[in-house]
Amino acid sequence: MQRRTFLKSALTASVASAASAGTALAQPSGGREYYQLRKYHLSRGTGSAMTEKYFSEALIPTLNRMGMKTIGAFSVNYGPETPTYYLLIPSSDLFTLTNLDLLLAKDETFLKAAEPFWSSPGKDASPFVDAESSLLAAFDGWPHLTAPDTKQKRIFHLRTYVSSTYGDHVRKVEMFHHGEFKIFQESGCGQVFYGDLLIGRQLPSLTYMLTFPDLAALEKGWAGFLSHPEWKKLAAEPRYAFEPIVTNIDSLILNPLPFSQV
Q1: What is the pLDDT, as a whole number, of residue 96?
Q2: What is the pLDDT of residue 176?
Q3: Are 169 and 205 in contact (CB under 8 A)?
Q4: Which of 76, 77, 187, 208 is a good FRET partner for 85, with 20 to 30 A between their CA atoms?
Q5: Neighbours of 166 (CB within 10 A)
Q6: DSSP bridge partners of 131
Q7: In the chain, which residues have pLDDT < 50?
Q8: Is the peptide bond before 204 cis (omega within 30 degrees of 0)?
Q9: Cβ atoms of 98 and 135 closer than 8 Å
Q10: CATH number of the 30-136 domain
Q11: What is the CATH number of domain 139-257?
Q12: Which pLDDT tens digit goes with each residue over 89-146?
């Protein structure tokens, strides 16, 4: 494994990209997308309404104006994370993506629209308890986000695979490139994005997102994937089967917010 550091400026976060001798990890190149995945743990009460207004009237229009299109906005409706909103921000401009909050703080149009959210009086009145961001690089085999038809009913399955070693992580990424993309497609699973985690919690790990019309379609798609002959063959290959290469899986069902562009 090798690590390369990208220094865009003194303000830019450093980004690590792992590489292997084979197909392995996503390696940043011209045109490849990066993803900032933001998570907002909302306050009870008015937190949801204030955050939705901030997303729809301030943040997403500004991101679009800055050249970042197809912004995903989602809610977690089940499990211990509720109420939580996720924001998926794709861009091929790494500098802008890693310096986003600094750039927003200098944008007068944004600041005016965002003022109620950015300047809520004190912790008790804040629309969110805390927020966190992670930075991902798109896989070689899936270099750009693929958005479903936003006019259709849809849900999303956000999954994160954590490995105990970088070698195991490399092998898991290889599995996607050696067959999982195709198996998902043939099983009726819509594929939105795949990314290597560069900065964030739970390194080394990858995150990907699937989409389905509803929960019944999700269950049918996964059943088709797990029973697919090519999946059984791939999972049995000695390179991937000799030890567990994924030690933890986070799995969330997300619903798009009304203004989501994904």
Answers
A1: 94
A2: 98
A3: yes
A4: 187
A5: 16
A6: 40
A7: 1-29
A8: yes
A9: yes
A10: 3.30.70.100
A11: 3.30.70.100
A12: 999 999 999 999 999 999 999 999 999 888 866 665 788 888 999 999 999 999 999 9
Alpha-carbon distance values, 103 to 10, 96, 106, 107, 234 (Å): 14, 8, 5, 7, 45
CA angle 209, 155, 247 (to 5 degrees): 40
Distance CA 107, CA 14 (A): 24
Residue 71 tokens read as 């912004």
Q: What is the DSSP string of the chain?
A: --------STTSPP------SSS-S----TT--EEEEEEEEEPSSSHHHHHHHHIIIIIHHHHHHTT----EEEEE-SSTT-SEEEEEEEES-HHHHHTHHHHHTT-HHHHHHHHHHHT-SSGGG-SEEEEEEEEEEEBTTB-S-----TTS--EEEEEEEE-SSHHHHHHHHHHIIIIIHHHHHHTT-EEEEEEEEEESSSSSEEEEEEEESSHHHHHHHHHHHHH-HHHHHHHTSHHHHSS-S--EEEEEEEEE-TT---
Inter-residue contact 120 to 73 (CB < 8 Å): no
Residue 173, both tokens: 């990424």
Q: What is the pLDDT of residue 9?
A: 31
Domain ranges of the chain: 30-136, 139-257
pTM of structure: 0.85
- Cβ count near 17 (within 10 Å): 16
Quick one: 90 exposed, middle or buried, by C-beta within 10 A (0-12, 13-18, 19+)? buried
Q: What CA–CA distance (Å, rounded) separates 79 from 237?
A: 35
Q: Which residue has the tokens 């969330």?
A: 252
Does residue 28 have a cis bond before it (omega within 30 degrees)?
A: no
